[in-house]
Amino acid sequence: MNLCLLNVITLILSSLLVNGLRLIQEPGIHNSPEDIHFVSFNNKGLPLMAEIGNFPRPVLNLAQPKWPGFIGKLNFTFPFLQTVKPDDIVVVMDGGDVLWGGCDMQAFKDAYKHIAESSGASIVVAAEMTCWENQCDKVPPMPEWARNDKLISNGLQGDHWKEYAKCKGHWHPKNTTYGHCSSPPELKFLNSGFFMGPAKDLIPMVEWSLQNYARSTFGDQSLLADYWMEHPRTVTLDYNQQLVACMSDMDNAKAYEVKSWSGKPTLWNNQFNRPQCFVHGNGDGWRDGSFKNIVQKLSPTLDWKKLFLKSQSLIARSREEWRQEMEARDLSDF
Question: Are strands 123-128 and 60-61 parallel, antiparallel or unpaired?
C-alpha cells in the first residue's frame, strides 16, 4: 500500500470515526482528564469486557458494521490515534476474548509506567507462552530487567513458568511463525490482542504495519511482532503479566482463580499473588473452557451463555474469514 493511498484511507476512516463511533459507556472519551483511552473492536455489539467484569472506565468500540478482516484492527486504530493528544496513552484490546480481571486502576497505570521505565520502551504488548505469528526461532529470551523485576519476590528462576505451563511440547519448525512453547517455557512471544503506549509512538507502528500488510503471515499479530523485533528500544512485552494475562498453553486452573477482593469478584494471579488487571482468553485458554469458567465467576448474574455464544460466533466467523483470506493468497496450507 503506497503512502498516498494510505492517506486517502485515513481521511475516509477519520470521517467515519468522527461520525460513527459507538461509545460503550459515557461520552467525551477524547477529552479524558486522565489522558488514557481504552479502545476495542466488536462489529456486532459491545466488546465482551463492557458486559463482564465491571470495568471502571469508558471503552470506545472502534469497529464499523462491516468487519474487513484482520487488517480492520489496524485500519480502525490508525485514524483514532490521530484524534487524541500525542502524549495520551491508548490501550488497544481485542473485543471478543479480553476481560477486566479487577485490579486497582492505579495499579494498572503504575504497572505500565514501571515496565516502560525498566525497559526504556514506551509501547508494551501482551506476552504469551505460545509462538504464533512470531519468528519462533528468532524471538529473544526474556530480558534481564524482566527476569529480575524488583516487584517480583526473588526474581524469576529459569524454570519458573514450567509449573504453570501446559504445553503441547517444544515445537518450532525452523524459519516458521508458528509452534508451541519455548524450552524451557517462558512468556516471551508477542500477542497483539493487547497493546498500549503513547499515541505518538503507536502511530508509526500501526502505519508501518498497514504499509507492510502484504508480508503478514495471518493477520496483524505477525506485523506487530516484526515491528517489535526491528524496534526493541520502542516496543517491549508484558513479560510478567502485570497488565494482561494470555491464557494459551497455560495451566489456567493452577495459574488463576476468581475470588473476592475489595468486595467484588476478582481474577487472582496465583503465579505472582496479585489481582490480575486484564485477561486474554486466547488459543487453548478458549478451547479448554478456562476462559468460559472465568466469565461465569466474574459475572455470575449475567446471561453468560448468551454472551459466550455471541463471542464464540464472532471468533468462529473471524477464523472463517482468515481461511478465506489465506486461500485467496494461497497460504491455506501454511
Answer: unpaired
Q: Does pLDDT of 322 surpass 50?
A: no
Cell output for 31: 477529552
Give the burial class of 265: count Cβ atoms within 10 A of its Cβ; 0-12 exposed, 13-18 middle, 19 or more buried.
Answer: middle
H or E element, residue 191: strand 189-198
* 311 has a pLDDT exceeding 70: no
Cα–Cα nearest to 123, from 78, 90, 160: 90
Nearest-angstrom CA–CA distance, 24 and 47: 8
Averaged pLDDT for residues 2-19: 43
Q: What is the DSSP letter of 132?
A: B
**How far, in Å, CA of 39 to CA of 32, rounded?**
13
Q: Which is it for the CA torsion 281, 237, 321, 62, positive or negative?
A: positive
- Which of 46, 50, 43 shows the shortest CA–CA distance to 16? 43
The tens digit of pLDDT for each residue in 23-49 reads 333 333 344 446 899 999 987 778 888
- 95-105 pLDDT per residue, tens: 989 999 999 99
Record the cell numbers describing residue 29, joined without a space.
472519551
Buried b (16+ CB within 10 A) or exposed e, 44-64: ebbbbbbbbbebebbbbbbbb
**Which residues does 59 contact at the CB level (< 8 Å), separation at least 6?**
24, 25, 38, 39, 40, 47, 49, 50
Q: Are strands 123-128 and 89-93 parallel, antiparallel or unpaired?
A: unpaired
Strand 60-61 relative to strand 98-100, pairing: unpaired
Q: Report which secondary-structure segment, H or E, holds 290.
A: helix 290-298
Q: Which stretches within 103-161 are classed as H helix?
A: 105-119, 144-147
pTM: 0.83
Q: 134 by DSSP, 3-state: which?
A: coil
Each domain of the chain, given as residue ranges in start order, spans: 3-328
CATH number of 3-328: 3.90.550
Q: What is the mean pLDDT of residues 70-80?
A: 93
